[in-house]
Structure formats: C-alpha cells, structure tokens
Hints:
With 254 residues, this protein is of the alpha+beta class.
Amino acid sequence: MKERFQKSSMILTLCIGIFIGATMVGGAAAAGVVAQPTWQPTYVDGRQVQMDAYNIGGYNYVKLRDIGKEVGFNVFWDNGVQVDTTAEYTGVKPADSSAAADTGNASAENNEVSSKGTNDPTGDMKIRLEIVQRINEVRAEHGMTALAVNESLMSAAQECSQQLFTYHHNRVECEAVAASGYPHGFGSNLTAFTGAAAQDIPQRAVTNWANSPGHLETMLNSNADCVGVGVTVDSGWTFCYMFVGCPGTINPYG
C-alpha cells in the first residue's frame, strides 16, 4: 500500500500536462499554439531519464505515456486515455479474454473477418497487410517511396476502426496514436462501406481513398515514411483506417 501511495504521489507530481502543440494532422493545423522542444533534464528518483519535452507559453510539458514508462504505470487507449497505476507500462489495453477465445476459435485457413466488432488488436492481419501493399502500389504509380509498416500505427488504426466511425474524430485519433507509442504527427484516412467480401476489402478501401482527392493526398504525403492500417467488420459494414506517420511533425494531443 505504501509503495502504491508513493507511486501515485509521483504520478501526480510528474503529470504536468499533455502537450497540445501545433501540427498537421490529417491536413488540419492547430492554430495559435506553438510548441518548442526543450532539453531540460528530467529525473525520476534522482536518476536522469530521457523524455521528449516541449515548452508552451513558458511551461514544460511531457507525454503521459513517457511518464508511465519511467515511473511504472500503464497508459493505453480504450474509449479515452486510460491510466492504470496497478500495472506496469505496456502502452496497450490488457487482453480481453472473450476476444482471445473468439480468436482461438477462428479458422486460420479461411479469409474471413469477424462479423462483429472485437477488441482483438491485430484484426485480420492478412487483409491489413494487403491494404498496406496496395497503398504502396498507389504511391509507386506516383513516383513515391514505399511506406514501412509501423507497429504502433497499426495498433492505433485498429483501435480506431473498432470505434465504427463513419467520419473523422481528430482528437480520438490523435490520442489513440499517442497512446500507441508513435511519437510524431500523422495523416489519417477513413472509409466505411457495405457489401464487401473479405477478399475484396483491400481493393475497395484503397480505391475509395484513391478516388478522393483529399484521401489520395494523404496517401501520397511526401513527408510520410511509415503506415498503419486497421480493419473492423460489424453488421455488414467494413470500417478501415489508415495512419501515415510523419516525422518532424507533432501530434497535438500526444
């Protein structure tokens, strides 16, 4: 109990804010707020640790997930930013036993996606990786370099697809990406559609994005170097997310 109280006290001391610097996210800028990197040393129990910090209006801000790593508590996304002081840091939601059972009963030989939403953080990886492949094919057609798969962005995109959104929720997306551990700004694409067999989902999603000027611009972002994709099928609807990571930019809710 004493140890837990000390950890909670440390958390309250260190949680000085989630910085809200200006950046490009999905083509939108957070105007009027300037975040400057700061190199003030940070110490935990007298031991210097490495945390990215930003100065906004004369105050230093560090990321909650970085505090979790160094102090030893979990920070993850589940319908909001969750802080669990009873668990060590992993950056992901604890496994859902019912979802794990469903995954274990699924056939690995077919190409089906679950007919309902799930907490499984991987989704159908074969379909998701095919979407990445098709995104890179579109980039190649326009003379762009291929994007590498980023594990953190894959996790965040899957988490957002499970929200069954039909339009963008910028703050939710930003917080999911931050909680996943990706440290930079990003671009976001979303598409939702019905009537697609599992094997047709990758082509349908990427075609929808390629036929939309704004979504195509996100796929062809020259500042992007990595990508994550999420897919969830629910009641006949398919929800697909794409996040492209952009080093040198800042997540306003990171």
